[in-house]
Amino acid sequence: MLKKIYRAMVLAQAASAANRTAAYLTDHQLQDWGYTRSTFAAETVAQIKADFDTADQARTANAGYQSVAFSQLPV
């Protein structure tokens, strides 16, 4: 539960920072990077989510056990 709250706070802060950063960039600078004003924050948040997923997978691989989804538990 705390991990979900932490991640929500990190993602919200990242979106806010990306929006503030985009305000200081010109459209030409954003276009050079392959973004528009509307996609800059969304792409930043998506990258952070992917980083979280990669870290979770690495942690699971190093733990020596496989996580079990609720639907996979025996009845």
Write down the secondary-structure element order. HHH
Average pLDDT number: 86
Tell the overall outline. elongated
Sheet-strand content, in percent, reads under 5%
Given helix and strand content, the structural type is: mainly alpha
State the helicity in percent bands.
over 70%
H/I helix tally = 3
Radius of gyration from the alpha-carbon trace, in angstroms: 17 Å
**Spatial separation of the terminal alpha carbons:** 25 Å
- Unreliable parts: none
Characterise the protein shown here.
There is one protein chain. By secondary structure, the chain is mainly alpha-helical. The protein has 3 helices and no strands. Helix 1 runs antiparallel to helix 3. The model has no long low-confidence stretch (mean pLDDT 86).
Give a nutshell description of this structure:
By secondary structure, the protein is mostly helical.
Can you give keywords for this protein?
mainly alpha, 75 residues, 0% strand
Write the layout of secondary structure elements.
Blueprint: H1 2-24, H2 27-33, H3 37-63
Helix pairs in contact: 1-3
